[in-house]
Design goal:
The complex is a heterodimer of chains A (184) and B (128). In chain A, helix 2 runs antiparallel to helix 3, helix 3 packs antiparallel against helix 6 and helix 5 packs antiparallel against helix 6. With 184 residues, chain A is an alpha+beta fold. Chain A is built from six helices and five strands, in the order αβααββαααββ. A five-stranded antiparallel sheet of chain A has the order 1-2-3-5-4. Chain A has a domain of 128 residues: Heat Shock Protein 90 (2-Layer Sandwich), CATH 3.30.565. Chain B has 128 residues and is α/β, with parallel strands linked by helices. Chain B has a domain of 62 residues. Chain B has a six-stranded mixed sheet, with helices on one face. In chain B, strand 4, helix 2 and strand 5 form a beta-alpha-beta unit. Chain B starts with a strand and ends with a strand. In chain B, 35% of the residues are buried. Classes of the chains: A alpha+beta (184), B alpha/beta (128). At the A-B interface, helix 2, helix 3, helix 5 and helix 6 of A face helix 2 and helix 3 of B.
């Protein structure tokens, strides 16, 4: 990449209200460091704190989701990769995360998110309550979390969460890219 | 039962479980890489301590400022344990629920805890 192109990249990011962007290896260490940086940045932008907290929560849920569920980076052993962005548009923040998924998991992800997209705020709250009480957190053996992640994102998002799944070029039928967006 | 003291890190809370005088406190933030792994031994010890008690008053100070969804679920089962103890020994569990006035997430969770675990005496404290 030429230096000129990088100036464009940076200026474009500024013009689109990007507060924070990371792309690379996802480890808990990297997450801790990013958390400190993001918190400082949010503190200087939002004195009230309520919104900052939700942005931070959304950031953590998305990046830990990416770390836990994305397959190992090609040719590596237990190395996860992903990209995450936090931005501001008028009075709202948005968080977008991208990571690889196994193509075979695509239906499972759709099954989990699609019902949430159709829910009202009250229904999301109810589903969250039900899942919180649920001991047997589903018969989904792949899920390592509490089954609350997507519902937490949906609860804090002022607009319905959005996602897209794209073919990962060069990975044939094995991998896809999963993009997830929440607006706070 | 030996007291538990674990200092806070940036992604795990301070755990100060003084079993010797039944004052249990947690503060800080909780978003460890593996929440179940971090909290399971602590919950096990809490469970066996509660089993050893017969009507002693237990005071729990919950003072976390952020916790992720996995930790939320674990805390819910921790309060379930305390509720069971309080059911067998009414008025023996006091939960001091500290929260920032503007933190509606933690406030709402407190309301859910209060609604679901009615044997626990719930005391909401707004952080100044």
């Amino acid at each position: 990449m030429s230096i000129d192109l990088f100036t464009l990249f940076r200026e474009e990011a500024d013009a689109n209200g990007i507060v924070f962007y990371y792309s690379g290896i996802l480890s808990q260490n990297a997450i801790r460091t990013m958390s400190d940086s993001l918190k400082q940045k949010l503190q200087t932008q939002d004195e009230k704190g309520a919104k900052s907290r939700k942005v931070f929560s959304t950031f953590i849920e998305m990046i830990q989701n990416a770390m836990h569920y994305s397959p190992d980076a090609l040719g590596s052993d237990d190395t996860k990769e992903g990209s995450i962005l936090v931005g501001q548009s008028a009075d709202k923040y948005f968080v977008i995360c991208a990571n690889f998924i196994q193509k075979q998991h695509e239906p499972r992800i759709r099954e989990k998110i699609d019902p949430i997209l159709k829910m009202s705020a009250d229904e999301i709250r109810q589903a969250y309550r039900t899942q919180l009480k649920n001991d047997q957190h589903s018969d989904d053996t792949i899920s390592k979390g509490a089954g609350l992640g997507f519902l937490t994102l949906a609860r804090d998002s002022v607009e319905p969460i959005e996602y897209i799944i794209r073919d990962a070029i060069g990975y044939d039928n094995e991998l896809s890219y999963f993009y997830l967006k929440a607006t706070i | 039962m030996t007291d538990i003291y674990i200092p806070a890190t940036s992604d795990t809370p301070e755990i100060n479980f003084k079993f010797s005088n039944n004052t249990l406190s947690m503060s800080g933030e909780a978003y460890p890489e593996n929440g179940v792994e971090f909290f399971r031994p602590i919950l096990r010890q809490l469970q066996s301590h509660l089993k050893s008690l017969s009507g002693d008053t237990v005071e729990f100070n919950f003072q976390l400022t952020y916790f992720n969804s996995v930790s939320t679920k674990i805390f819910y089962s921790m309060f379930e344990l305390l509720n069971e103890y309080a059911k067998a020994h009414p008025n023996c569990v006091l939960l001091n629920w500290h929260h920032d006035e503007e933190d509606d997430t933690i406030l709402e969770l407190g309301q859910d805890i209060q609604e679901d675990f009615t044997w626990i005496d719930f005391n909401a404290i707004v952080l100044a």
